[in-house]
Amino acid sequence: MSRWQSGDFDRERISDFFHPFTPAHAADSLEQVDLQRLWDRGKRLILLDVDNTLVEWKGENFAPAVVEWLEKAKGMGFTLCILSNTRRVERLMRITQLLGVETVRGRFKPSRAMYRLALIKFHKKPEEAIMIGDQMMTDILGANRAGIDAIWVRKMASKEFGPTRINRFIEGLLTGPIYKSLITPLDEHGNAAEVTKPLRERSVYHQFVKFAIVGATSFAVDLAIKFFLIRYVHAGNQLLSEQVGHTLRTDFPGLFSFARDDQGAAAPILGFIASLFAMFNSFVWNRLWTFEVRGKEERLKQMKRFYAVSLVGLVINNVVFTLFFNIIPGHRGVSLAVANALGAVVAAAWNFYGSRRYAFKQ
Ligand SMILES: [Mg+2]
């Protein structure tokens, strides 16, 4: 599990996938939660988890600091309500009596049920409520699902309910990415550090590695579709490529004189179609993975731009290839291979630059 960190989170900085698990804030303990700040933000209803948030698992001995914090909250006018997944109802009732707080019972977190019941019971809107709990998979997820902001507190003790360990394991997998959205780490006095972390670092090197991997998948897509179109697809009893090639050679004998046979004449046309599919593959993965573009609004515009960049890349590839194939002396096979590699490298550099600075520019 990642090292514990406290502060405010800005979920816009991370993928939508993690949003339901991302708290608004993380605090080292309940007492570290700034009540005035909550009040100033319009919060009036504080929803509280019990185990490892207010008290150790199964425990009923509340730390003076916890009681003090709860009393302060009550004094300020907050409504306090416990949302617990505990099955030990008698203990829960003793606790609510002891602390003088409310509770509701309903389907367990991360179900929205208890959150909604609490909102109804106290006539509050979701934006007036705040959930405080130690578990991402129950307290935080349930709150977010109910449209309520959540504060994640560091769990009190390592002793926990057995199945909770599964939740903790998943939590451990999630915290790394989620910490990337931490914007204001707090110092030991609970004050926000003045430096705000920059938006997720978009390292060019990492992007290029991803871009190259996507390029390799597109190469495979291109090859597979070429095979499919040239060697597999039939129109009637004959291969499509032979029919197309035959027509081309009959209609434009000069233009297709390079072709060894009908399939060879169809190759540039069907090959181009395959390239368009491969470009689509590149577009999708580069958009989502390499450049991590979020939102759907600009998708079509980005696709047009990406295709423009890629088509220019295709031309560059061929021009560079042809140029060096004619320049490089010696064995034709060697010059072909070298010229081909040079064309691919120059085109890849162009495509990467064009994708980064133009197609997916944010
Ligand atoms: Mg708990």
From TrEMBL:
Entries under Pfam families matching the protein: GtrA_DPMS_TM, Hydrolase_like
Transmembrane segments: 208-230, 265-285, 306-328, 334-353
Subcellular localization(s) per the UniProt record: Membrane
UniProt membrane topology term: Multi-pass membrane protein
GtrA/DPMS transmembrane domain: residues covered: 271-360
Major localisation: membrane
UniProt cross-references to InterPro entries, sorted A to Z: GtrA_CellWall_Glycosyl, GtrA_DPMS_TM, HAD-like_sf, HAD-SF_hydro_IA, HAD-SF_hydro_IIIA, HAD_sf, PGPP1/Gep4
Domain of life: Bacteria
Full protein name: HAD superfamily (Subfamily IIIA) phosphatase, TIGR01668
Organism of provenance: Fimbriimonas ginsengisoli Gsoil 348
Lineage, uppermost ranks: Bacteria, Bacillati, Armatimonadota, Fimbriimonadia, Fimbriimonadales
